[in-house]
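C-alpha cells help. Our protein:
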Amino acid sequence: MTIRVLLADDQALLRSAFRVLVDSEPDMEVVGEASDGAEAARLAAERRADVVLMDIRMPGTDGLAATRMISADPALAHVRVVILTTFEVDDYVVQSLRAGASGFLGKGSEPDELLSAIRVAAGGEALLSPTATKGLIARFLAQQGADDEDRDPARAERLESLTVREREVLVQVAGGHSNDEIAERLEVSPLTVKTHVNRAMAKLGARDRAQLVVIAYESGLVRPRVE
C-alpha cells in the first residue's frame, strides 16, 4: 500500500529535496506541496494524504494552526502530521502535539530517518521513537512549570474510564516503551498490549501514541521530570 505524503514548508528548495527523496521509495509518493498551513489543510483533504510533513513556522497560517485544522476534521482522522523542527525547547512544539501532531522530525535528520518517520507515522506510532518523543514532551512540560495547578481536570476525569490494566499500559507508553517491552514488563502478549493501547486511545480521544503521552502528562498520571 502506497503512503501518500504531503509536504508543507514555505521553502521551495526544501520541498524539492523532500520530494525527490520520498518519490524515490517504492512504497510512498508525494501527492502535493503547500507553502502555508491553510493550503496544507486543504490539500490534505483534496489529495487524500496519509502523512503531512509540516513545518512549524510558515507565513500566513502556520503549522500549528494547520495541525489543529486537520485534527479537528473528522474526515481527516487518518491523517498523521509530522512536525518538522530544530528540536528547540519551544512551547510551540508542545502545542503542536496537543493539537494532534504525531511527533517530531529534525530538519537535520538523515534521509533514512525521514523515510522511517513517514512509515512510522503512517502506522500510527509516535515519532521518532517512543523514548525520544516522551523525553521531549517531559522536558517541555517541565520547563513550563507543569505542577498540580496546571493539570487538566478534564483529562484526569477521562482517565476514570480506563481499566486498571489500561492505566498500567498508559503509564508504560508514557515511559517510552514499545508494545513488546510493555508485554514483557506486564507479562502479557504484545497483542494484548496493542488491544489495551487501542482501547485507551478510543476512550481518551487520542489519535495515536504521541497523544497518549501528552494526556498522561497533562492529566497528572505521569509527572514530567528533567533528566
Residues 190-204 form the longest helix (15 residues). The CA atoms of residues 166 and 199 lie 8 Å apart.
